[in-house]
UniProtKB/TrEMBL annotation:
Protein name: AIM24 family protein
Organism: Streptomyces hirsutus
InterPro entries linked to this entry: AIM24 (IPR002838), AIM24_sf (IPR036983), Trp_RNA-bd_attenuator-like_dom (IPR016031)
Gene3D superfamilies assigned: Mitochondrial biogenesis AIM24
Cross-referenced Pfam families: AIM24 (PF01987)
Length: 210
């Protein structure tokens, strides 16, 4: 159902089914489509309440119909992620669209969220199907293995999946050593077995330059 028209445009072929997408991300469509704005990004009342309590912002629309619908957002690079009953953890601002069979909600991520100013929760996508995530520049997919933990700049983090444990640690970065840091530096550490998606660009974080 999902295919990349280009690295920055997602094409969704629909045969009467529905998809969820970031509100306002539709750029064109052919055929017969209906658009409905949804309240909150999570499924059901629990998802809505959780997002209000945590301040996690995610405005979603449901698109249903027959034909092809194209999605894009600020010329961001798009990556397709296939889920086989597992869970994808992704920053809400980096989630473009999900197939109708996937469930979205919120997941606790500990102190990592606080370092980015996004609350202590992040968006979860689970089930069987495809999700489209965005990145500022082509995303890099990094493998984490039990013997090879991974440390990531919070500003470059996009998403992760698999059996991973994450923690927040303070540390000195190259930018700090070069005198370009502006505050306490934090890093994200992943251990276990899974994949981490990072972007070649850094968003601003409350924890200071990282």
């Amino acid at each position: 159902m999902f295919r990349l028209q280009s690295s920055k445009v997602l094409a969704v072929e629909m045969t009467g089914d529905a998809v969820k997408a970031k509100n306002g991300s539709m750029v064109a469509y052919d055929g017969d489509m209906a658009f409905k704005k949804l309240s909150g990004g999570g499924d059901g009342i629990r998802g809505m309440v959780t997002r209000r309590l945590t301040g996690e912002q995610m405005t979603v629309m449901e698109v249903k119909g027959r034909g092809v619908c194209w999605f894009a957002d600020r010329a961001s690079e798009i990556n397709l992620v296939g889920l086989q009953g597992d869970t994808l953890y992704v920053e809400s601002s980096n989630l473009l669209a999900t197939e109708g069979g996937l469930r979205t909600g919120t997941g606790f991520t500990g102190l990592r969220g606080a370092s980015q100013g996004n609350g202590l929760f992040t968006t979860t996508v689970e089930g069987h199907g495809q999700a489209a995530i965005m990145s500022d520049g082509p995303a890099v997919v990094l493998r984490v293995a039990p013997q090879y933990p991974l440390t990531v700049d919070p500003g470059a983090y996009v998403a992760h999946q698999g059996r991973l444990r994450q923690s927040l640690q303070s540390g000195v970065t190259f930018r700090t050593l070069l005198g370009e840091g502006g505050g306490e530096a934090f890093q994200m550490r992943f251990e276990g077995d899974g994949l981490v998606y990072v972007q070649p660009s850094e968003r601003n974080t409350i924890a200071g330059d990282v």
